Amino acid sequence: MRRLALIVCVLAACSTASEPPAPRPTPPTGVAMPARGLVLVAVDNESPLIRRMCDHVEREHPPAIEVGVDMWKDTDRRYVDCYLIARDRRTLAAYVAALTKLDPSLAMPSDRELGYEALPDGTWRTHLLERTAAIEGRIVKQAHKDWDAATGRIQVAIDLTPDAADQLAKLTTQLHGRKLAFVVDGEIVSAAVIEQPITTGKTTISMGGSDPKQQDAQADRLVAALQRS
Q1: Residue 204's Cα: distance from chain center in Å?
Q2: What DSSP string runs through 35-104?
Q3: pTM over 0.90
Q4: In which band, very low, low, confident or very high, does the pLDDT at 229 lie, cut at 50, 70 and 90?
């Protein structure tokens, strides 16, 4: 599902186990999402608006636009979430703009924003994000390049500030079963399903692609961006 995979204790036991959560409350409203630095943003899964966009693509077959589907299971339900794919971000943005001009009912609501993520194969995909950041400000205490021996991939290890770590523990409890996007300088670098609360304040982002040199350069850029945040 996720290529630039965020290892947020979904597979690794880097946070303590917890009891099944109570019915999910509405995630915190947060603050307006800044254009620079690292922010954590809730993803709006299974949006009827995005489903309608996907239906349009599947019906009209526009050039250079495709539909992808993410599927995962929570403790009490199964998610099926569609998204748009194109060769580059500009093509995706232009298509969405043209589509909403053709059908104004497909325009983004004021509390949502379409985010874009680069995939390891060079294509781009969409995520529907809540327009406000769930966690922002001085988030990163330390970030450094690392190596994941299990996957053989270069990754970036992130230690959050104490305040951000506390917020992340609460947020990932509320977002159980949903996706959380890590957005750096306005671009999604990872969006992963939260299967249990992240209580350690530590996480890693694995680099996508198969070229070690590209992974290394990508990790350097990400570390530099995180250190500015």
Answers
A1: 13
A2: SSSEEEEEB-TT-HHHHHHHHHHHHH--TTEEEEEEEEE-SS-EEEEEEEEESSHHHHHHHHHHHHHH-G
A3: no
A4: low
